[in-house]
Write a structure and sequence with these properties.
By secondary structure, this protein is of the alpha+beta class. The chain has eight helices and twelve strands. Strands 1, 2, 4, 6, 7 and 8 form a six-stranded antiparallel sheet that branches. Strands 3-12-9 form a three-stranded mixed sheet, with no helix packed on it. It has a three-stranded antiparallel sheet with strand order 5-10-11, with no helix packed on it. Strand 10 and strand 11 form a beta hairpin. The longest helix has 28 residues. The protein is elongated.
């Protein structure tokens, strides 16, 4: 086939051979079978790789006949579908009608290709007439030029100059720098015990609590009008101190859970702790008004609870 033929025109019409039904042998076809006419048209018949083209199948059948068209779904075939099959009706008269099926397809191999599709089935009464759709042909051209002699290769580029990584040029300096850093680290490790001996001693739980109360007093939150924040921080100091003295307590405990965890601890002045927690919870959750005098009194009660627990703490207890 000439590859320069017009792509948009109808170039080839492949008349489909009507296959005999099973059991018919070589006997002549019956009248309904003989009335079935079919044909396949490929538009265009010459394409390049991947270009879409259409395979149109037409059948002319008696009015009472039914046509079952195959659905082509094999995308790995030589001619693969690009879209679902579209069926439409053609011309008709008092005895015959025409039915058309269009398949939008593409081909990815080159050369003369043919479809390998199942037959369409025309059902006329109790008779089934297969209509061959295989062997509809298209010519697929390559997108490459036929004459490769016109491709002149570019001249070879010179080899890349050898580039020495910077770490290979500076490795002696890096090695010396690493040695100096290691020496300084070793000297700092030798001085560490001396520095540790001169450091401030670690505070115990009671000392930490008293230091926290002193910081709270220096903040002067009550004088700034933040009475609720002042008493809330005081209760937090008490909770942290009790946590260091009684493992059963937790900072996540509610006031009731905290009281339950220390109710049998003889070191804790439970009535004073109840009064403190009730007063502070009323401020935190019930928005009870609080003046500066009441705030200072609650902070003082919190400090006194810590002092009383510490006085009852057995000598030599862990901090």
């Amino acid at each position: 086939m000439n590859a320069s033929a017009s792509r948009g025109a109808v170039i080839a019409t492949v008349l489909c051979t009507l296959l005999p039904t099973s059991g018919s042998g070589a006997q002549p076809a019956a009248a309904p079978r003989a009335a079935v006419q079919a044909g396949v048209v490929v538009r265009p018949d010459t394409v390049t790789v991947g270009d879409p083209f259409t395979v149109t199948a037409r059948v002319r059948v008696p009015l009472g006949a039914r046509v079952e068209w195959p659905q082509v779904n094999d995308t790995a075939a030589t001619i693969a579908p690009r879209a679902p099959m579209v069926r439409r009706d053609g011309a008709s008269d008092s005895m015959m009608r025409e039915e058309i099926a269009e398949y939008q397809v593409a081909a990815w191999d080159t050369g003369q290709l043919a479809t390998e599709w199942p037959a369409a089935l025309v059902i006329v009464g109790n008779d089934t007439v297969p209509v061959r759709l295989a062997d509809a042909r298209v010519y697929v051209q390559s997108v490459l030029s036929a004459d490769t002699a016109e491709h002149v290769p570019r001249p070879a580029k010179p080899p890349f100059a050898q580039v020495v990584p910077w770490w290979e040029r500076w490795w002696p300096a890096l090695l010396a720098l690493a040695a100096v850093a290691l020496l300084l680290w070793w000297r700092s490790r030798r001085r560490a015990p001396v520095i540790a001996s001169q450091a401030t001693p670690v505070l115990g739980a009671y000392e930490r609590a008293m230091a926290a109360f002193d910081r709270l007093e220096r903040l002067a939150l009550s004088e700034a009008g933040e009475h609720g924040r002042s008493v809330t921080l005081a209760v937090d100091i008490v909770r942290s101190y009790l946590l260091s003295r009684s493992p059963r307590t937790s900072l996540a405990h509610t006031s009731a859970e905290l009281l339950a965890s220390v109710s049998d601890d003889v070191r804790v002045p439970v009535p004073s702790l109840v009064s403190l927690l009730v007063g502070v919870d009323a401020v935190k959750y019930a928005q009870r008004p609080l003046d500066a005098t009441e705030a200072r009194a609650l902070v003082a009660d919190a400090r006194a609870i810590v002092q009383q627990v510490e006085q009852r703490e057995p000598a030599g207890a862990a901090v």
